[in-house]
Design goal:
The protein is α/β, with parallel strands linked by helices and about 250 residues long. It is built from ten helices and nine strands. A six-stranded mixed β-sheet has the order 1-2-3-4-6-9, with helices on both faces. A hairpin with a 2-residue loop joins strand 1 and strand 2. About 35% of the residues are buried.
Length: about 250
């Protein structure tokens, strides 16, 4: 029997599993509790031999507004449990980053912002609907986005622009521009995103499993991503600690 969660839903379609975000009243904001559920689900799916690919999907109207703003602001203002927030944040990113099976982000509707934008970038592939928006509004209230995963896709200069200057509705990155920059792999009409992501996963997983696994591993080795990712996270955390006087 499939385990039930409060903030996500697990849907199986043959070899493909969909992790559907289910916190619509908060625009699928990735609270600490929701991140913990995603981590738990990924750990279980990692061990399921029948599962060959996982798709993150936010639903018809939006992907996710990013990390829960109230939780982030509480930490930035020194009111929240800093260490607990940091530990859960790091574990969330690391679990996704080191997941050994194909990960696809399916962004349908309005937006993927802040930590949700980071999440899509850490995934291996991305499918988005026309008109979707991506950005980092969290930088305006003192939260730092990731940088390195963007640099591997678009280069240093453009990565800096994306992380430093997509904080407002006027500067959000459109899915059309993201596709032009090779951030988005497939750009489709709204409502077609999930089916396109499923078809993409099915096409890829027709190849021998060991070949796919090897290429995903080589992808990480080539960019030395795990080591660099850890260094980036540590640098951000140390900077936040100094700013908060911790």
């Amino acid at each position: 029997m499939e385990k039930e969660y409060q903030f996500i839903k697990i849907e199986k379609k043959g070899k493909i599993t969909i992790i559907r975000f289910d916190r619509p009243e908060k625009k699928n904001a990735l609270s600490e509790a929701m991140r913990a559920e995603i981590i738990d689900a990924l750990k279980a799916l990692k061990e399921e031999k029948k599962v060959k690919a996982v798709i993150f999907y936010g639903g018809e109207e939006f992907f996710s507004a990013g990390f829960d703003r109230d939780e982030v602001q509480a930490v930035v203002q020194g009111k929240g449990d800093y260490q607990q927030f940091i530990d859960s944040n790091h574990l969330f990113h690391q679990t996704i980053f080191e997941f050994p099976k194909l990960l696809i982000a399916a962004v349908n509707g309005y937006y993927a912002l802040a930590g949700a934008f980071d999440l899509t970038i850490i995934c291996h592939l991305r499918v988005a609907s026309k008109g979707s928006l991506f950005g980092h509004p969290e930088i305006r209230f003192g939260a730092c986005p990731l940088f390195f995963p963007y640099m591997t896709l678009v280069g240093r200069g453009k990565a800096l622009e994306i992380t430093l200057n997509t904080a407002t509705r006027e500067t959000f990155l459109t899915s059309e521009e993201a596709y032009r920059l090779n951030i988005i792999n497939k750009l489709v009409e709204k409502g077609e995103v999930l089916n396109e992501a499923i078809n993409l996963a099915k096409q890829i997983t027709q190849s021998p499993e060991y070949v796919i696994k090897q290429l995903l591993q080589v992808n990480n080795i080539f960019f030395d991503q795990v080591k660099t990712f850890d260094t980036e996270i540590d640098t951000i955390l140390k900077s936040m600690s100094k700013l908060l006087g911790l």
